[in-house]
Amino acid sequence: MSAIRIVVAGAAGRMGQAVLRVLAASPDFALAGALVRKGHPDLGADATALAGAKPSGVVLTDDALPLLAQAQALVDFTTPELSVELAALAAQARIVHVLGTTGLSARDDEKIRAAARHAVIVKSGNMSLGVNLLAAFAKQAAKALPGFDIEIVEMHHRRKVDAPSGTALLLGRAAADGRNIALEDHAVKVRDGQTGPRGDAAIGFASLRGGTVVGEHDIIFAGDGERVVLRHIAEDRSIFATGALAAAKWGQGQKPGLYAMADVLGL
């Protein structure tokens, strides 16, 4: 099978560069383009060289259309605004869109679902195998421990701009599914002052930021006299890049629709 032609969006960012390094080391993929935001200071630079890999001759550009027309998949770790635009373009090009951007609003999600009528979109707050397995465990635990309180604690590097993290929300949604409730109706993301007692059905979130932490997530099930803690620690961004490229490969030949990493992994 020939190498899958991939466009990497957000190619100058931490995750984009991680994807470029993993892609450059794999014969299963070929770099078809590298996108950055308009006016980015590194426009025109060799994408893989900037990421610390062997130069590829593919330069950073802010013009998506000609790249997507020649690609089979788009791997996207950018911003909500740009991801919505790219979803529409990927739908026009009928290519696989692997969407790892976090911080999307309900309106953004509506637009992405509309684009998924014409393209395969794999969307996840976290692309790693371990986290998605953890989410499956969280759903089972929430169902098996109906009287336990659920709290999610996450920590990321100082430059992360959204909170709670996409992974924390992924875990919270899995726990809510296990309880047959809607996360949006039971999430508690802020506690300050005289908050009163904890609600029985609440799913609490605490977000920590500092240093260069790649990502740490605990989902805590607290009962009377005992606690169950499920934990994932990300030590290298390459785990997310590897998962994103696996999703791009899995999406080839799938029917248009909105998928999750659980679908990719068969969970």
Quickly list its features:
single chain, alpha/beta, five-stranded mixed β-sheet
Structure overview:
With 267 residues, the chain is an alpha/beta fold. It has ten helices and twelve strands. The strands form two sheets. The protein has a seven-stranded parallel beta sheet, with helices on both faces. A five-stranded mixed beta sheet has the order 8-9-7-10-11. Strand 1, helix 1 and strand 2 form a beta-alpha-beta unit. The longest helix is centred in the middle third of the chain and has 16 residues. The chain is elongated. The two termini are 26 Å apart. The model has no long low-confidence stretch (mean pLDDT 95).
Query: In angstroms, what is the radius of gyration?
Result: 19 Å
Structural shape: elongated
User: Structural class of the secondary elements?
Assistant: alpha/beta
**Ranges with pLDDT <50 over ≥5 residues?**
none
Number of strands: 12
- Average pLDDT: 95
Roughly what fraction of the amino acids lie in strands? 15-25%
Number of helices: 10
List the strand order in the largest sheet.
Answer: 3-2-1-4-5-6-12
H and E string: EHEHEHEHEHEHEHHEEEEHEH
Helical proportion? 25-40%
Q: Report how far the terminal alpha carbons are from each other.
A: 26 Å
Main sheet properties? 7 strands, parallel
Give me the secondary-structure topology.
Elements: E1 4-9, H1 14-24, E2 29-35, H2 47-50, E3 60-61, H3 64-69, E4 73-76, H4 80-93, E5 96-99, H5 106-115, E6 120-123, H6 129-144, E7 149-156, H7 166-179, H8 183-186, E8 187-188, E9 203-209, E10 215-223, E11 226-234, H9 238-250, E12 257-259, H10 261-265
Parallel strand pairs: 1-2, 1-4, 2-3, 4-5, 5-6, 6-12, 7-9, 8-9
Antiparallel strand pairs: 7-10, 10-11
Helix pairs in contact: 1-9, 4-5, 6-7
